[in-house]
Design a protein that fits this description.
about 45% helix, alpha/beta, Rossmann fold
Length: about 725
């Protein structure tokens, strides 16, 4: 990256391997259409006498569109195709260069003849578009007669040895100038009546003859070209005109569509680049303007959108639109010439972690990246510039933060830009860390999850390990009228910022209470207990704190996926061992504690996954954490040891003992009471919680929960197994 240029590369010729998959698909569709046109044996009807109507026996459309939004790579594909088709004719190239480029279809005998590449966008207002288009053929006429030579007479003047195509060209120019010049009426209005009438008659006659004159010219051009290239009569050429940015000029785009439809000939094809949605919108506006007059019928105007689509479908049929679809999220990291993945690997977030790590374990983050080729290349260039111009004294996290901010800004432009989000992500100039400020209303978060492992962990108890496939988020200004979900790009960019921020020193991630999430969402691990008393299973998601917004869940999800990935690869989640479940539980607790850390504490060290280390942090949160973290630590962290959550008895008992050991004696009974109440809050009273928990405790008598929290003394059955005794209220029980 150090030697890369800051200069932006414009659309240029690419090899087939350099094309994106979307460009390759469109390329193959365009080549298939062009080859079919080339092999067609259609002819132009020439009735005699000439006043009879021209009726072509077979007439197929000769217009195709490289169809895509801005920056999708249409122009690069067009110039690549034109370069491939011109190779057999390019005498300036060496002989080996004329061979077919690998991956592209062959151009037999050079019969596909690219005539010109027009760009509609920069045309001046005064230009005659029809003349501008058909005028491209004059170069072919000049080549047939011996190429452009110094002091050669202009093509519109007759010469003694001119070819038939030259004669027909002059007739065509006369017809275009007389019948389609936009200034005819202004010129003729200054003449006397007789001259004015004569000029209008000539203009109208030429206009009526224009289509026939164009057909006669192309017929002659085909004959003269075939003769010079020694082509057989059954191997006629197909002349191709490329027109770039055909949708970029509202004043000329509709006229262009009408022009290419009018200039039909079986040996002429037009290859346009543009966006069908934009074409249809311009056609709709054009139709509405034509009917927006005083007294216009409202019903007629309401039919204009449908009429506009019908007109467009006739000019460029759906089957002739070679679509360049948006680049799927999974391929945006590795697009040719940009290779964002390799660039992310060189951007450190922490000493041992680079930016690509987050994309690896949370594929949804790829939706934050642009979905078109040009913006992806622009992002790569911006990253390169940031790397090259970074102050040597800046911290490592400064570069990562600035790249995240660039991605955020691009996502806002692509998505539905919302005022409340414009400044939501900032880079602190001093520390280089990210600051996230989601000002405004509470954020609702939902997730699509999938089970990656399910295992029976006890009598009538099933444990499911989940991973989040994708998150959606929205701001709920009014619960009765929730906002539309945030655009996918903005959601993913916010998730990326949160993930990076969680690993940075002195970041500020706006963990304000939202009131939306209970903390018992089934996002990561869920156990299911099938009670004999109920017809449906009772579900117990592993507990997290209440009220966190998307950044918290995104950060947790990414780290959770990194933990379960080795188990997935080893296929150890289908039948989980007690050790595996215990490892997952320790990491679950570690992430919950880590994401609660004080954001302004640069000396914070993540706790290890040993129970006593985790318990010490839980007790610290009970005493000094904010409201959410304190409530979770007091009421929910220890709840994970309840039998219904699926931990092995040995692991659950060790976790309860570790917290009990870390607690000051004065807080012990309060902690017991908190767990007792929280457990019952998980069940609706209609299911008779006391009976359900009694059934659970009977099935899991090796857990110390019943004795420590429920205050039940275990008894021994006649079979020698432990059995829980009758429940005793915690406020009257002794330890």
């Amino acid at each position: 990256m150090a030697n890369e240029s800051f200069l932006r590369r414009e659309a240029g010729v690419l090899t087939f391997d350099e094309l994106t998959d979307e460009q390759k698909t469109a390329c193959q569709s365009a080549e298939a259409l062009l080859v079919e046109m080339l092999q067609s044996n259609e002819t132009v009807d020439a009735p005699q006498p000439h006043f009879l109507p021209r009726i072509d026996t077979t007439r197929t459309n000769r217009v195709l569109l490289l169809d895509g939004s801005r920056g999708s790579g249409k122009t690069a594909l067009l110039v690549t195709l034109l370069d491939h088709w011109r190779r057999p004719h390019n005498e300036a190239q060496t002989q080996p260069a004329k061979k077919r480029k690998p991956g592209f279809r062959d151009n037999p005998q050079g019969r596909i003849v690219p005539v010109a590449l027009l760009d509609l966008h920069p045309l001046p207002r005064s230009i005659n578009l029809l003349l501008h288009v058909v005028g491209r053929f004059v170069r072919v006429v000049e080549w047939i007669e011996g190429d452009i030579q110094e002091n050669k007479e202009p093509a519109w003047l007759s010469t003694a040895d001119e070819r038939e195509s030259h004669k027909r060209w002059r007739s065509l120019m006369s017809a275009v100038a007389a019948g389609w010049d936009s200034n005819v009426k202004r010129y003729t209005a200054q003449m006397d009546l007789s001259a004015y009438t004569e000029e209008l008659e000539v203009a109208e006659r030429e206009r009526l003859n224009l289509v026939d004159t164009f057909s006669a010219f192309i017929d002659a051009l085909v004959e003269d070209f075939s003769r010079k290239k020694n082509l057989a009569r059954d191997a006629r050429p197909l002349f191709v005109l490329g027109i770039d940015d055909a949708d970029m000029d509202p004043e000329y785009s509709i006229e262009l569509l009408n022009t290419v439809r009018m200039l039909w000939h079986p040996r002429v094809a037009f290859v346009l680049t543009g966006d069908s949605e934009l074409f249809c919108e311009m056609m709709r506006v054009h139709c509405l303007r034509a009917t927006t007059v005083p007294g216009a019928n409202n019903d007629l105007q309401s039919r204009m959108p449908s009429l506009a689509k019908d007109i467009y479908d006739k000019i460029i049929p759906p089957g002739h639109r070679c679509e360049l679809r948006p680049i799927p999220p999974g391929r945006r990291l590795t697009v040719n010439n940009a290779d964002l993945e390799q660039r992310f690997k060189k951007i450190a977030v922490t000493n041992g972690q680079t930016l690509d790590w987050y994309f690896r374990y949370q594929p949804q983050l790829c939706e934050a990246l642009p979905d078109r080729l040009r913006p992806i290349l622009d992002l790569a260039a911006q990253m390169n510039k940031e790397i090259e111009t970074l102050d040597p004294c800046a911290t490592k996290q400064n570069l990562a933060s600035r790249v995240v901010r660039i991605i955020w800004d691009q996502a806002l432009k692509r998505g539905d830009r919302r005022t409340r989000l414009d400044d939501s992500i900032q880079v602190d100039e001093e520390s280089g860390s990210l600051h996230i400020n989601l000002a405004g209303d509470p954020m609702a978060v939902s997730a699509i999850t999938r089970a990656v492992g399910r295992s029976a962990v006890g009598p009538r108890l099933l444990l499911s390990v989940l991973e989040v496939h994708r998150f959606t988020a929205s701001f709920n200004a009014d619960e009765r009228k929730p906002d539309e979900p945030l655009p996918a790009a903005i959601t993913a960019a916010l998730m990326l910022a949160a993930n990076v921020g969680f690993d940075q020193d002195r970041s500020d991630l706006d963990n304000r209470y939202t009131g939306e999430k209970t903390g018992y969402e089934p996002f990561f691990v869920v156990s299911e207990f099938r009670s004999r008393r109920l017809a449906y299973p009772l579900k117990f998601p592993w507990p997290l704190p209440a009220g966190y917004a998307l950044p918290f869940y995104a950060g947790f999800s990414c780290r959770w996926k990194a933990v379960i990935e080795p188990f997935k690869q080893a296929n150890e989640l289908a039948a989980m061992t007690p050790d595996n479940i215990e490892t997952l539980a320790k990491h679950f607790l570690q992430f919950a504690i880590t994401l609660f850390r004080p954001r302004n504490d640069p000396h914070f060290v993540s706790p290890g996954i040993e129970y006593q280390n985790l318990a010490d942090r839980v007790v610290e949160l009970i005493a000094n954490g904010d409201e959410r973290s304190s409530v979770w630590a007091a009421q929910r962290a220890g709840l994970l040891a309840a039998p219904e959550f699926g931990l092995p008895a040995a692991a659950a008992n060790k976790w309860l003992a570790a917290i009990a050991k870390a607690l000051p004696p004065a807080r012990y009974n309060d902690w017991i009471d908190s767990l007792y109440r929280e457990r019952r809050a998980r069940l609706d009273r209609t299911v008779q919680p006391e009976l359900i928990f009694h059934e659970i405790d009977e099935n899991f008598a090796n857990h110390h929960w019943a004795r420590l929290i429920e205050r039940k003394e275990p008894t021994i059955t006649s079979g020698g197994k432990k059995k829980a005794s009758k429940s005793v209220k915690p406020d009257t029980a002794s330890e």
